[in-house]
Description:
The protein is α/β, with parallel strands linked by helices. It has 9 helices and 12 strands.
Amino acid sequence: xxxxxxxxxxxxxxxxxxxxxxxxxxxxxxxxxxxxxxxxxxxxxxxxxxxxxxxxxxxxxxxxxxxxxxxxxxxxxxxxxxxxxxxxxxxxxxxxxxxxxxxxxxxxxxxxxxxxxxxxxxxxxxxxxxxxxxxxxxxxxxxxxxxxxxxxxxxxxxxxxxxxxxxxxxxxxxxxxxxxxxxxxxxxxxxxxxxxxxxxxxxxxxxxxxxxxxxxxxxxxxxxxxxxxxxxxxxxxxxxxxxxxxxxxxxxxxxxxxxxxxxxxxxxxxxxxxxxxxxxxxxxxxxxxxxxxxxxxxxxxxxxxxxxxxxxxxxxxxxxxxxxxxxxx
Length: 329
Ligand SMILES: NC(=O)c1ccc[n+]([C@@H]2O[C@H](COP(=O)([O-])OP(=O)(O)OC[C@H]3O[C@@H](n4cnc5c(N)ncnc54)[C@H](OP(=O)(O)O)[C@@H]3O)[C@@H](O)[C@H]2O)c1
């Protein structure tokens, strides 16, 4: 395992985190709770000490499962809990809402579900242009001052939005989409965070499983699985992305004797993002963790990888389809 620091947090943080969106089941075609708890325990056994969740993941279920899993092993103080606020839901529909009263209620609910009395890293899930950023930042700062949270983060924020937020409250982390097929964060947000010492967490490092090495063209997604609406998983793009993963797999096997999955995570880490948020939902999905470490990608490697992507993905598309709507009122 490699470790990093998040400003304000004392303990060293593993550079691979467990992401628990799919553990909530919602938008992932359902999930078995016992398997989720086993996955969290497996992550801890393998040396992962940061778990990322959010109230909206399974409308509370993901946080509840994380809370239960940590209670069972009694390791709360050794684990960094990163959760979020600012996405509400009604009748199964979600919307952004970072108003003071909403965040205050959300924090209390999260503390209860997680069965803890503080949250290590509390992140604004999405910017909410209907609420003044000052109000949101002040509210987050009040939580910090009250000792209910230990570090403040934002997610999916632009550089401008981070600058406005940081005028009001200390900003410790940014969480953004970042993987071989979704590199947009690198140019502006990552450069800004590196310069201003804001730690970064890259989400979707496997691009929702596309970069796992196990994705098959014939795979049928069940129920509300997000990949039914993900434009990367629709033809003719899907074939292009799959062809790309096959070429990347060959390239990394020949050049570094590693798997595509190890390449996907290594790529995020070697781009100097502090933490890669690996979204595993079964214990054995974390089997390849060891092979992420003990090697590095060079500038020449990055160029060769980009060349393969450019040659095979002729019609690239970003992760924008995941953006939740603003509230109506
Ligand atoms: N802040 C935000 O707005 C935001 C947005 C998205 C995600 N996130 C965070 O980032 C985390 C990771 O992102 P993500 O969950 O979207 O995507 P991801 O890590 O790119 O992919 C996760 C999915 O890949 C598959 N997978 C994982 N390991 C595998 C393995 N070894 N072999 C085969 N398949 C494997 C699993 O799905 P199947 O088994 O079903 O194929 C899993 O659910 C989330 O859990 C969440 O904590 C944050």
